[in-house]
Amino acid sequence: MNTTSQERMSVREHVAYGSGDMALSVSIISASLLIYTFMISVVGLTPIDAGWVLLAVRLIDAITDPVMGWLSGKVKTRWGRYRHWIAICSIPFGISLFMLFTVVGESYSARLGWTTGAYILNSIMFTMIAIPYISLVGVMTNDPAERLKANTFRFPMAKAATIIVTTFVPYYVTSKGVAEAGNAYALAFLVLGIASIIVLMFCAFYVKERVEINSPKNISTKKQILSLMKNDQWLILCITMVLLLIAFATRGNIAFIYGTEFAKAAGGWEIGIFMGMWSAGGIAGALISKWLTDRYNKLAVFRWSLYLSALMAVAMYFIVGIGDLYLAILFYFLCCAVSEINSPILWASIAEVGFYGEIKTGVNTSGLSIGFISFSQKLGMSISGPITGYTLTWIGYEAGAKLSMETLLGLSMAVTFIPAIFFLIASFVFKRYFIDNEYFREMIVSNKLPTDKLSREKDRIVDC
User: Among residues 148, 176, 208, which one ends one of the domains?
Assistant: First the structure.
């Protein structure tokens, strides 16, 4: 690749870049924390049907994510490779957010069909924006310092959007009462949908693509896929992503129900604060991750964060009792903070496995690689759907019904033990990942894979 300009990025461009992730965060956090409760409490779907809706939508992503990864690497316009996708898809994306949180249809089958269709549309629009957006910073500048600065704008802006979704939407909806919950959700996401369109347009029009990427035009898609399958570190990253998203999404699916039913959070600010611990914990976890990785091997930090995530979840089950709202808020914050320590490490590894695979196979698969990683993220979220649905049915949960002691304890177990199990499985899988900072630097300098001896040494370090 080469740059077409050495122009530095302005503050406005940094803000424009960060604004794109604000819209994406509204969608992904809504799908992680609110949609499941909305489907069973407002739309009236059974827990099992709601779970299968999540799975069905993500199975479609098995096609759309890799296809979008391929398209974003092939199609180029006068705008560049990525900005046009964000501009074109911004309006349907905003509309799909509103549709997702509206109730349409008198019969059960009609409501089920509308919800499924709206979710599919939202997921496709998210994919068509997210994959180009992930790639965008790579063509805005080839200066690592400028890229880092861009991300220092991006992540706080994304967290601001997350706080709005996790705190203020639950506050607004619950303050309106059960009878008006449907209208409250619709109005909230009408506003968020319009805001998403505005910030996506701002992103598309005020960022610049300066770096020219030479796409692998003569390499067939089949060859790129076969090359990906030979990238062992990429495969480990994908599997780890699936496992972690099962843990995160299962906890997120049940969090609202746990907060209101088990912790006895009242409507309004109490449930808003409880749900907001997801965002607060995420911010704390990212800061802790930076401090730890500056001092210790990042792979060791990653695995120990998973051990601690499992331990903290189990501790939450045994320490937090029914109605212990303040303890529930504290432990939900701690669980989210500890489990988010691994997220910056995981996302930073995406570029590393791409470079590793290109050196190992000689084939540039960056577009497909990102597409499949995005699919892995959504696959984990989808698998959490049936897990959540069947678990809630098994423990006897019914929306709006008075819950027995056994059902309440089942809610506590579901929000703690299920994530803990998947955190531990993920730690076992990630044990074979060996690209730490030293390994990556040697790859960059030598433009070849370090020796097997060095790889084995990395395994030994991570095992310690």
Answer: 208
- Rounded to whole angstroms, how far apart are CA atoms 364 and 354? 8
For residue 376, how far is the Cα from the chain centroid?
10
At 427, list the tokens: 């730690």
CA distance 67 to 365: 13
Distance, in Å, from the CA atom of 314 to the CA atom of 417, rounded to the nearest integer, reads 6
What is the pTM assigned to this prediction? 0.80
In the block, residue with structure tokens 């006895």: 264
* Same domain (yes/no): 396, 371: yes
Q: What does the buried/exposed string (b/e) look like for 75-106 if buried means 16 or more CB atoms within 10 Å of the residue's CB?
A: eeeebbbbbbbbeebbebbbbbbbbbbbbeee
Q: 196 in a domain, yes or no?
A: yes
Distance CA 354, CA 332 (A): 34
Tell me how far apart the alpha carbons of residues 340 and 352 are, in angstroms, rounded to a whole number: 20
Handedness of CA 151, 372, 32, 117 (dihedral sign): positive
Inter-residue contact 366 to 232 (CB < 8 Å):
no
The answer to whether residue 213 is domain-embedded is: no
* Cα–Cα dist 228/357, whole Å: 7
Q: Which of 75-84, 158-167, 303-312 has the largest mean confidence?
A: 303-312
The end-to-end CA distance of the chain, in Å, is: 39
